[in-house]
Amino acid sequence: MSTTKKPSEGLTEGDAAKTAEADAQVVTDATAGSAELSYQLEGSVPFFQRFMSRVGSFWTLGVLVLIVLLFEVLTPSMLTKAAWISTADYGVEYLILAVAQTFIIITAGIDISVGAILGFSAMSGAVVMQDMMSGHNSATAVVIVGIAIMLVTGLAIGLLNGLIISRWKLPPMIVTLGSMTAFTGATDVLHHGAEIATLPNFVSNLGTTSLFDGWLPLPVLVALVLTLVCGIILARTRFGLHTYAVGSNEVAARRAGIHVDRHLVYVYGFAGLLCGIAGLMVTADFSSASPLAGYNDEMYAIAACVIGGASLWGGRGTMFGTLVGTAIMSVLTTGLVLINVQAFWQQVAIGAIVVAAAGFDHIRLQSGDQK
Questions:
Q1: pLDDT digits (tens, 9 = 90+) for 262-283
Q2: What are the sequence ranges of the domains in the chain?
Q3: I need a surface site. Which of 45, 71, 113, 293 has the fewest CB within 10 A?
Q4: To which H or E segment does residue 179 belong?
């Protein structure tokens, strides 16, 4: 029978000590080489990319402060109660849609129909409430049925988008572009392009009620609570974990046992439900349902998400970042109005911000890959 000796067998104590010293020297050299390589690699990455990778999404807080200070210099009314209420009104609509968009963008998708879903859901519920009021139904029944119609309509459209995307493997942008076009037209069809101003008092009161001497409108509180709840769902639940997994690597998510197609349907359905809630808040805020509600809001929602750190390539994003991004968009909108910038220039500014934010996101990704 043959025997195999271990490398250490047959060595004297002196030889063993020399071997240990040699092994230690190898480890030391490898560590030093790795550190030198890391230093060289870092030196090869442009300074701006290294800076962006270190500051991460916290740069948005600094941008928000700078924008507020800039507009305060340009117009003394920026920090008044009236300006805050105006900013908050914009923020409610943008924030709820941005929260919905965040879930979708994290899955490496995009939904440009969120504004159309908001408008169609709001108009659907308003039409039903108006018809029920003319039929002398109880106010409670009118409110319950009308709100239910808004939420179910948003949920149904979101589920439809998700089913088409997951089953037919079509690009999310193409599917939601079709949805945006179809439901924008359908909103006009519902009431012949006219707004509905005859709504139950409950809806109007929901939009006008405020707390803390008028500093906190109730719709703002609803939007903040929704953001908090969705933040917990995204960060602390299996649903959120699966959302990140699908966006980071769909193939790996499938191999890990995640039902990717079904999860995408859930994500788009949940986003549609949030759009329905946004439709209710906008209707309450204006005490009417307008066929123009939600118009172009998808751009603001996407911009808020990307500014807040959500990656258009999927797998990254937080609700806190979306909240800060929405605050930037809302403050920017209010500030441009206060300094009398024409509306079409506001659109130019928003478009430029979207492109710049996407560029920053790409730089962060590049710096992460080169580390």
A1: 999 999 999 999 999 999 999 9
A2: 57-364
A3: 45
A4: helix 172-190
